[in-house]
Each structure stands twice: as structure tokens, then as C-alpha cells.
Prior knowledge:
binds NADP nicotinamide-adenine-dinucleotide phosphate
Amino acid sequence: MSRVAVVTGAGSGMGVAISQHFAARGDRVALLDVNGDAVEEVTQRLRDGGAEAISCQVDVSDRRAVFAAIETVRTELGAVEIIVTSAGIEAFVPFLEISPESWEHMMAVNLTGTFNCLQAVVPDMLAGGWGRIVTISSSSAQSGTKNMSHYVASKGGVIALTKALAVEYAPRGITVNTIPPGFIETPMVHRPIEAGLLPSMEELIARAPVGRAGTPDDIAAACAFLCSEEAGYITGQLIGVNGGWYL
Ligand code: NAP
């Protein structure tokens, strides 16, 4: 069955792979990202492959823009049945150096951005009596990570929001799960490596229990399953995709 799926952060990293997986199985996909050129390029590639896909440039922390984008999705593709919230930012700053402004910005994108996107699409799922929601959190919120307390706190909020919505909407046919990734090779990992904020890729791989970096496809495959008909009895769960970094 062809479903309407929204993917945020679809212009880069795991959001690209998640969108590709949905398109490959025949879903109609709306790709949202703050980087309009990047997300349009990904969308065009999906269309070239025969998919029905649209792109929307949107900052997920801008509530009005999110609701406008979802209205466009409804008009062009239909009511939203699936959403994966992959848009996110990170930063490496010691706790005492985090300014109130950067704390607010982190929360605005990672946590409030997730809130905005979910509030915009849940009415469609309630009306249809079926929905699949996957939030992308972080294994850092499970393990703790130094110099990222604002990021970790925002992702801890995403995990808690996921569980709360899972309980609230379980009787309405909507499942809500979170994937807390760990060490997935994307620009978000390459940037801090290049800036010397993380060890080299080789060192990270040497520390990884499975002996390799995760790929965006590793995340996308888990998302595709959680957003399938067969996953209807799985809700409120943290499905770690981290190569054994956090057990
Ligand atoms: P990525 O390659 O940087 O992709 C994130 C995408 O989100 C980028 O296209 C980014 O655009 C976009 N974005 C940033 N702020 C946005 C906003 N306000 N509104 C809409 N889009 C926005 O990173 P990734 O590794 O795929 O990360 C995806 C998710 O996984 C994130 O939530 C991240 O926190 C989480 N995560 C990643 C890892 C990992 O190992 N990679 C581990 C744990 C959790 P710009 O590039 O223009 O900023």
C-alpha cells in the first residue's frame, strides 16, 4: 500500500536514506529540510527514479512554516500517515560555556521542532485511524556525553515525548517509537572530526563493537520496519541502532 510519508532533515545524512527507503517501497514522500537546495536535489533524484516526491524548505523551529509545509503536503500528496523527524543540530561546548541563547536554539530545533512537526501531522493520523511516528533521538541521551549537555538534554526530551505520545495514541492506531542512533557516518559526524572535536574516523571505528561505522541505510532500514504494517505492536520503544556502542 502506498502511504504518505514525511521526513524532516531529508536534505542530508540519514534523512536522505530514510526518504529513499520510503520511496523505494512506493510511498509518496515529502522531504523537509532547512537547506532548500539540498533537499530539492535529493527529491529530484527520487523523482528521476520514478517516485512521487515533493520537497519543502522549512525550519522545523518555525511553527507557522511547519504547519504551512504540512498543508502543502496534504494538498499535493494527501493526508500524512507516516513521519520520521530526523532534522537536528549538534554542538560541542562545555556545560559552563553554554549561553542561554545556544541552549534555547538547541531546544528550539531538536525538541520544539519535533513537537511542531508532530502536532502538525497527528490530526491526519487520528482522522485516518492509522499512523507511524519515528523520532530520531540519540544514544548520547542514553549514555550521557560530555560537552554536549544541551544536545543531550534536547534528545532526552525527544525520548520522553516519544513515550508520552505512544501511550496517548496507542488506542488510536498510531505507533510512536524512537531510534537513538550511535556513530552513523554522516556530515554531522564528519564535521566535528574535521574540527578536532571527536577522535578520527579510524579511532572511532576501532572502538566500535561491530568494527565499522553505522550507515544512513542502517537507520533507514529500522525506520522502514517501524513504519510498516507489521510493526503495529511495537510502540513507545527505543530501538537502538548503534553497532553495540550502547547496550
Ligand atoms: P545531518 O547530515 O547534519 O542531517 C541533518 C539535516 O537536518 C541537515 O540537512 C540539516 O540542514 C537539517 N536541519 C538542521 N536544522 C534544521 C532545522 N531547523 N529545520 C529543518 N532542518 C534542519 O545529520 P544526521 O547525522 O543525518 O542526523 C540526523 C539526526 O540524527 C539528527 O537529529 C541527529 O541529532 C541524530 N543523530 C545523529 C547521529 C550520528 O551519528 N550521525 C547520532 C545520534 C543522533 P543543515 O545541514 O543545513 O544544517
